[in-house]
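Worked example 3 (structure in, sequence out).
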């Protein structure tokens, strides 16, 4: 015996079902996002995360961690979005060569316009076919898998939070209060128009 803990029948079936989700769900979301919003799913994720930040700005290394991307991949995607004037990069004063990405007004408008379609896709492909108990189980499973992944990372204490996303109802996204965890389904949260106080969650 080589000591390998091979999967039994039930474990293998669960893993194969999860593998199908990991492969097919991102592909379906990406295809729909490109068709409806002319963005890849990863581009939408980058714009959505920036929309939730103070001044819609985030250091590139932090943005890479937040979106679970390498700096090289993120830099390539940010460069593509820069050409479309959806975001801009700038050096951070006094930090050497570190740079930050800032969501432009055009980028903000794009992510706000794309969010309803994204929410509809998330509902169609995942949420609406699950009952309350299944959703609760999905949350527990997601948390357990996330914790296991972070335990296996060299600097687990610095592991990134899940990406932020938010649902838009025609108004603009807002920053999550510091006392609340960010949403983890990539759906932009609404903000009251200027001059009005946001509703308390």
């Amino acid at each position: 015996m080589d000591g390998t803990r091979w999967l039994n029948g039930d474990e293998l079936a669960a893993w194969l079902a999860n593998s199908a989700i990991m492969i097919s769900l991102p592909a379906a979301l990406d295809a729909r996002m490109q068709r409806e919003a002319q963005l890849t799913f990863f581009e939408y994720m980058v714009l959505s995360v920036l929309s939730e930040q103070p001044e819609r700005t985030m250091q590139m290394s932090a943005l890479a961690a937040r979106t679970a991307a390498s700096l090289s991949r993120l830099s390539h995607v940010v460069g593509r979005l820069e050409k479309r004037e959806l975001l801009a990069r700038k050096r951070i004063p006094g930090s050497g060569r570190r740079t930050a990405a800032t969501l432009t007004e055009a980028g903000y408008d794009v992510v706000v316009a794309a969010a309803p379609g994204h929410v509809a896709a998330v509902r169609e492909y995942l949420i609406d076919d699950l009952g309350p108990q299944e959703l609760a189980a999905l949350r527990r499973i997601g948390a357990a898998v996330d914790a296991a992944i972070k335990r296996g990372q060299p600097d687990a204490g610095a592991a990134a939070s899940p990406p932020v996303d938010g649902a838009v109802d025609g108004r603009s996204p807002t920053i999550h209060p510091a006392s609340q965890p960010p949403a983890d389904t990539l759906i932009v949260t609404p903000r009251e128009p200027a001059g009005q106080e946001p509703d308390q969650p």
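Notes: The chain has a mean pLDDT of 81. The beta strands are 57-59, 87-91, 99-103, 172-173, 190-191.
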